[in-house]
Amino acid sequence: MKLAITAALIGTAAAFQPASQSRATTSLEAAYNRPSEALPFAKNGAPDTLDGTLPGDVGFDPVGFSTGDIVSLFDSKNKGGDTMSDLYWLREAELAHGRIAQLAVVGFIWPALYGCLPGNEWTGVDAYNYPNPVEALENVPGAALVQIVAAMSWIELKRVSLIKEQGASRVPGDIGIGQYGTWNPLQLNFDEEKYAEIQTQEIKHCRLAMLGAAGLWLQACNSGTDVVSQLSTAFAYPEYYAKAGYFLPQGI
Q1: pLDDT of 142 higher than 60
Q2: Which residues contact 133 (CB under 8 A, 6 or more apart)?
Q3: Per-residue pLDDT tens for 204-222?
Q4: Of 1, 156, 170, 184, which has the fewest CB atoms closer than 10 Å, so is most exposed?
Q5: Collapsing DSSP states into helix, strand and coil, what is residue 46?
Q6: Which of 46, 70, 40, 43 is closest to 60 using CA atoms?
Q7: How far is it, in rounded angstroms, from Cα 145 to Cα 126?
Q8: Which residue(s) pair with 183 in the sheet?
Q9: How far apart are CA 42 and CA 60, in angstroms?
Q10: Residues facing 34 on adjacent strands
Q11: What does the DSSP 8-state code read for residue 177?
């Protein structure tokens, strides 16, 4: 079941990548002529490296990452040659992390709602019976964790190999699945306007999932229980009502 969910999410996310995009170049002396939608009060606005061509670009770069010189993973001397631009390296990382975070959020919620995987004689009956991921990591067999890390490493190596092969023509996040990929099992065929909208939706979901996964992990570490149990208690009798709810209608 988890494998099917993972495959579906990866396929859907990859389908949201464009066939081509106009490339933006980075510079340590980038101008700030475009108003920032995310920070309208910012004095300088958005750097010229964020020119609106990337999906989800709202001019948010207060630290100036997009204007810096991100060293290429493969060829730090071949700037503007056959490697991805600095800005597109950042977008590649953002998409990869965001997709992983989306899977992580599902991993936090699914076991608590629908149950965990059954154990067996090798792992023990209760080896996978922990809906709290923090507790699960402490109890699952070490061999199972090794398998997960090995599978993740293989997938990541394949992705990095594609980046190296495609060079400057690389479209960030493209893993060859979906509308413009070699495998399109869902037969996706969006027009240009709809496709741009879906790209923006994906990057928003990625960003939200990264924040959500971090929050879920910290809350699980702090509470020692799964998120569904915490939400159930909150809806039944929220603590804020008991502590500061005198101004609320009583008898609810």
Answers
A1: yes
A2: 107, 108, 111, 217, 220, 226
A3: 999 999 999 999 999 999 8
A4: 1
A5: strand
A6: 46
A7: 16
A8: 177
A9: 10
A10: 46
A11: B
First to last CA, the chain: 40
Residue type for position 61: D
CATH of region 2-26+69-244: 1.10.3460.10
Quickly list DSSP for 210-232. HHHHHHHHHHHHHHSS-HHHHHH
Q: Are 180 and 174 in contact (CB under 8 A)?
A: yes
Element (H, E) at 110: helix 86-114
Sorted by where each begins, the domain ranges of the chain are: 2-26+69-244
Query: What is the rounded radius of gyration, in angstroms, for the C-alpha atoms of the chain?
Result: 22
Is pLDDT at 237 greater than 80 in this prediction?
Answer: no
Local confidence band at 177 (pLDDT 50, 70, 90 cut-offs): confident
Predicted local distance difference test score (pLDDT) of residue 125? 59
